[in-house]
Amino acid sequence: MLVSFLFGGEAMVSKSDSVCAYPGCSRTTSGRYCEVHSDTTKQKYKDYDRERSDQQEVSFYNSKPWKDVRAAVLQRDFYLCQQCKRQGITTFGNIVHHIVELKDDWSLRLDMNNLETVCSACHNQEHTKTKKGLNTSTKNLVIVVVGLPGSGKSTFVYNNCDKERDIVIDMDELISTMTFKPIHDRTLNAYDSTEMVNDMIKTVIDNLTLEKYKFKRVWLIRSTLSTSESNKLKRINCKFVHIIRQRSLCEHTVEVAGRTIQSNVFTQIEDNITKMKQILKVEEYEAYEKIKF
């Protein structure tokens, strides 16, 4: 920088320099803004451009052409989530999603070939992919804990859950509460209630995928999941845990507790867990381990 110094070191700006254009700044610079305010100004213009773009999108989504096309897409797709449909799952959808986002190609905003019906879970998942740096661990978390009877699933959850904030869905506890029977008792009304509780849990799983609930963490304790349940839960912020324990020890624990579970039931659960692991990322823990989030 070319400057000449006068009285006590005060700088006189040469003809090749100018004062920074940022309000209140007296620094000299060869450009429009000094080094300190160059990035600040760039960010200001970026914020302005983004705000202008957001206003344009808001105006678009309130327009009659969009509302007409949206209605046509919903009718075309029979109000079914197309992303779920491609996975063999039938899910109600009432959101029309731009496959190529508006900010990437404004010209496709009313192109029905660029639009599809999705459910809220799939829509949120799509937009999560486009947000760099999004910390999904802060979202609602569902933790599914599976394992053989007697493996220690409930013990694992009890040792790891936040007893002030978390919600635990345990089939055995639900049946016991509904029938006043001891835990694991499956006689008379406890036996009759099993199908009801299974239906309740299936409904909860459906509602979790639709993001109908507000919660910090939900723990779902099951011996295993069906393929349909696995496919639904893998689309949300879900962690899958398998409590591992030698089968003979599990069978012994069940027998000592006075429970009767046929050997083929253990085999079926093991087979189902193997199928789960073919389509899901499943972490393995022992009953007394601490979970890693």
UniProtKB/TrEMBL annotation:
GO molecular function, one term: endonuclease activity
Keyword set, alphabetical order: Hydrolase, Nuclease
Family stated for the protein in its record: Belongs to the HNH nuclease family.
Segments forming domain HNH nuclease: 68-124
Gene Ontology terms: cellular component: cytosol
Stated name of the protein: Putative HNH nuclease YajD
Keyword Cytoplasm applies: no
Annotated InterPro entries: HNH, HNH_nuc, P-loop_NTPase
Species per Swiss-Prot/TrEMBL record: Macrococcoides caseolyticum
Pfam families for this protein: AAA_33, HNH
Superkingdom per UniProt: Bacteria
